[in-house]
Inverse folding.
């Protein structure tokens, strides 16, 4: 299973990706976690991306795609990709790259959560500079501008499903499992 999780900051992508990875033995690949790790380790990549991540801006597409290539290829038992693609451009570029490797994504889940709940969750979490109130506002604005068009671009695809992410993490998990079972059956059918 190769699964994409799409959702606003605080929608629960990381929370749900971890549970899915544990349940199905897939690799959890989070673009944000990998970027933050590079920043902590002060790698060359980390120094390039630090100001983007701290300010809640999107890192340039090429940087993210180069960073993800290796873990995606290494995930031979499938993956749940959290935080990528985030724009129509990333979706188109990665589709071309992934197709050329003979790998196709099987399903995408959009985690839908109201804005007030996103803000409440992020303020409660408080992940450093990134979760300062002004940066949260900016991340939500970037999501509206860059990622909401991706949802429109994917709308109506048979392998895409929207889940109400405002419920408990357990309820959301069970709902995602039901959806991906249906979506996987669809993709696997001739
Ligand atoms: P990224 O790490 O992807 O951050 P994000 O999209 O802002 O999302 P978060 O990780 O904050 O939230 P989440 O949806 O994972 O929710 P979580 O499970 O943690 O990206 C960070 C930065 O990296 C970006 O700003 C950008 O700079 C860069 N970047 C990343 N990908 C990129 C890309 N493709 N292109 C360019 N740049 C990129 O949950 C949040 C909180 O809510 C937690 O405390 C959790 O415990 C709680 N919670 C979760 N689910 C529930 C629930 N059901 N009920 C109650 N609480 C819940
Ligand atoms: Mg996350």
């Amino acid at each position: 299973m190769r699964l994409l999780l799409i959702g606003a900051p605080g929608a629960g992508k990381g929370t749900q990706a971890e549970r899915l990875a544990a349940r199905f033995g897939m690799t959890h690949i989070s673009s944000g976690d990998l970027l933050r790790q590079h920043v902590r380790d002060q790698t060359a990549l980390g120094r390039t991306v630090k100001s983007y991540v701290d300010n809640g801006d999107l890192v340039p597409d090429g940087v993210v795609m180069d960073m993800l290539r290796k873990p995606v290829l290494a995930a031979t038992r499938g993956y749940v990709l959290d935080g990528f693609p985030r724009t129509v451009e990333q979706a188109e570029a990665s589709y071309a790259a992934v197709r050329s490797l003979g790998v196709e994504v099987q399903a995408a889940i959009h985690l839908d959560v109201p804005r007030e709940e996103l803000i409440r969750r992020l303020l409660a979490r408080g992940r450093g500079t990134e979760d300062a109130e002004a940066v949260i506002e900016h991340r939500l604005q970037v999501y509206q501008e860059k990622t909401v068009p991706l949802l429109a671009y994917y709308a109506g695809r048979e392998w895409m499903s929207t889940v109400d992410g405002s419920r408990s993490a357990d309820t959301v998990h069970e709902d995602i499992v039901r959806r991906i079972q249906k979506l996987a059956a669809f993709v696997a059918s001739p």
Observations:
- Strands lie at 2-7, 27-30, 79-82, 107-112, 160-164.
- Residues 133-154 form the longest helix (22 residues).
- Residues 13-14, 30, 32, 82 surround magnesium ion (ligand 2) (CB under 6 Å).
- The two ends are 17 Å apart (CA to CA).
